[in-house]
DNA sequence: GTCTATAAGGTGATAGAC
DNA sequence: GTCTATCACCTTATAGAC
């Protein structure tokens, strides 16, 4: 294992500045649509200075994806800890919706990547993410078997939660173009709708 | 109004070939990620020959967006024609899911465009699409007022249908990476799940 | 650590022969 | 209508001064 040299304070600060600026630009234009000039300008640094901190454009992008992957998937890990099935899933839905409101750049970063075939994170999807989803699908199946949850396909339930919540980040311009909301006010209506949607679907009769 | 010269048979054929090849490439890599070389190779033509039929790369992309926009939105227009509210909406959901299965390239073309801020179709979204959605929202509100549909927010209902169904095209690699389905077999499970989801939600008590 | 200058390669588009 | 050749520009990345 190669040892990383510990970073000075100014190095840490510039690294963070670059990653934040890069998240801005990558999430809006995708990997190929983003230029180092744009990132440099957004970060307030020169282009060669960017490449002093990161060896390449791809290295910046990869660093973002790897750093954010865990955070992005994290809420799913907490499903099944308390044990009130419908409430847990509804809480997960609302948490995911909050993340679309508060971290839309992260959502779009992944959306760009996945729509274009996930060339850089396919291994993560087919490995750790797949395992986690299958594990939670088992939890949900257990709840259904115990009669605590209506009978639904666990995988497609999870897909539907991902899609309905991330839609408000990934397709933000379309949502805003149609609703013309004041700020983020429409997220309250979305929360109410989604809570009802999943509560009615999942509550056993 | 400028008259367009009618196209010869070979011109029509090449134009179609180019647009189909361009849909392949644009839907996978986005506008900036696509090169004329890729389109030319996919179409079996030379790069200058491409530009004999279209004046620029952007012209090819625009032609695709404009041509497919109507087709893509079309199923929404038919809502409210028969008058059995729950059945109509469920039929719309299943029709949209079929389109994700049979026309994933079209779905991803728009997904790429909208995730990146819809620079080329924002007018279409804020104009005709917005009007159509608002019109259908009124239809749905009427059904709710008549007690034929459970009380839900019509706009967020439509957004949820778009997101859940298009997810299977736009996030196809993620879905397949997790489910490892045989061909398109998982679309049947998705259809069953989504039909139950909307039937339970929309049927009045 | 940060800059200016520049190399090296890719990309959209055009010229002109056939 | 289609091709080869090529231009002009953009973009990533490096060299080397400070």
Characterise this structure:
The structure is a homodimer of 205-residue chains. Chain A has 205 residues and is mainly alpha-helical. Chain A folds into two domains: 1-55, Arc Repressor Mutant, subunit A (Orthogonal Bundle); 62-202, Tetracycline Repressor, domain 2, CATH 1.10.357. Chain A has helices spanning 9-33, 36-43, 47-53, 57-77, 85-102, 104-115, 122-145, 154-170, 172-179, 186-202. Chains A and B meet through α1, α6, α7, α8 and α9 of A and α1, α6, α7, α8 and α9 of B. Chain A binds a DNA duplex (18 and 18 nucleotides) through α1 and α3.
- The portion of residues assigned to helices of chain A is over 70%
Largest interface: A-B, 52 and 52 residues
Global geometry of chain A: globular
How many domain modules of chain A? 2
CATH superfamily of the largest domain in chain A: Tetracycline Repressor, domain 2
Q: What value does the Rg of chain A take, in angstroms?
A: 20 Å
Quaternary structure = homodimer
Largest sheet of chain A: none
Number of helices of chain A: 10
Mean pLDDT across residues of chain A: 96
According to DSSP, the number of beta strands of chain A is 0
Q: Unreliable stretches of chain A, pLDDT < 50, 5 or more residues? A: none
Order of helices and strands of chain A: HHHHHHHHHH
**What is the strand content of chain A?**
under 5%
User: Span from first to last CA of chain A?
Assistant: 56 Å
In CATH, the topology of the largest domain in chain A is named Tetracycline Repressor, domain 2
| CATH top level class name of the largest domain in chain A | Mainly Alpha
By CATH, the architecture of the largest domain in chain A is named: Orthogonal Bundle
Quickly give the structural class of chain A: mainly alpha
């Amino acid at each position: 294992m190669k040892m990383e040299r510990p970073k000075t304070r100014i190095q840490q600060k510039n690294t963070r500045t670059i990653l934040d600026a890069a998240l801005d630009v990558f999430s809006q234009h995708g990997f190929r649509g983003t230029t180092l000039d744009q990132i440099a300008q957004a970060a307030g640094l020169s282009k060669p200075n960017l490449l002093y901190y990161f060896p390449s454009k791809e290295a910046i992008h990869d660093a973002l994806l790897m750093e954010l992957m865990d955070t992005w998937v994290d809420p799913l890990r907490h499903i099944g800890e308390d044990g009130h099935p419908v409430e847990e899933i509804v809480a997960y839905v609302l948490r995911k919706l909050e993340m679309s409101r508060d971290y839309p750049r992260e959502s779009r970063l992944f959306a760009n990547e996945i729509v274009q075939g996930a060339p850089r994170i396919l291994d993560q999807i087919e490995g750790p993410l797949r395992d986690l989803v299958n594990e939670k699908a088992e939890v949900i199946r257990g709840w259904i078997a115990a009669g605590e949850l209506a009978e639904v396909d666990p995988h497609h339930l999870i897909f539907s939660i991902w899609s309905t919540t991330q839609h408000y980040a990934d397709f933000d311009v379309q949502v805003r173009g149609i609703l013309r909301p004041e700020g983020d006010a429409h997220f309250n209506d979305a929360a109410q709708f989604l809570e009802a949607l999943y509560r009615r679907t999942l509550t056993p009769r």
